[in-house]
Amino acid sequence: MRNKRQLKERIVLICDGETEKWYFTAMNRHSAYSHIDIFPHLVEKASLEKQKQQVENYAKDYDIVFWVVDLDAIIHDNKIQEFNTYYNALKSESNIKIVVVNPCLEYWLLLHFRYTNMPFSNCNDVGQHLKKELPKYEKKQNFYLGSKNIFELLFSNLDTAIDNSKKTGNYNPFNFKNTCCEFHKIFKHLKSDK
User: Fold this and answer.
1) pTM of the complete model beyond 0.90
2) Cα distance between residue 166 and residue 185, in whole Å
3) How far is C-alpha 58 from the geometric centre of its chain's CA atoms?
4) What pLDDT is recorded for position 193?
5) Contact (Cβ atoms closer than 8 angstroms) between residue 126 and residue 106
6) Secondary structure (3-state) at 185
7) How far apart are CA 23 and CA 104, in angstroms?
């Protein structure tokens, strides 16, 4: 946990995809969040069990651990029961926050432009809708982290995205196919820490 001399809250974001890591890296560079040490950690291709273990390990050393979970791959791989077991085991931990987005990060990006809770068939489906709002969007590192990174590009719409994210509701383990985005939990915490 945080040393009394530390002024910045230490936050780690555990994510399983490159796009999430790129997004949070861009966010970390933004002056609005310079009061916090944000460490995006990629657990690429790690099993759910390994992701859970990493979340628990980081919780020993960080003030807050956000486990950012895209449900599309979990549903596709028929791992929802396993995820729900870990979700239920961790959800009551005070410094662990599970942030579910169904289907994927692109849904969060889309919410910067408009509210929708339509059931997307997969992440590519969301990407098609996102390109209507952000025609130059590319799922590439240079787009996310370029000279005007993804966070800067969308920052003026962040409050809209947070409001739209809240409207999608929270993850329901008993109705996991519902479209949802809990990114508002991250920003609620970050705003309360100023």
Assistant:
1) yes
2) 9
3) 17
4) 59
5) yes
6) helix
7) 12
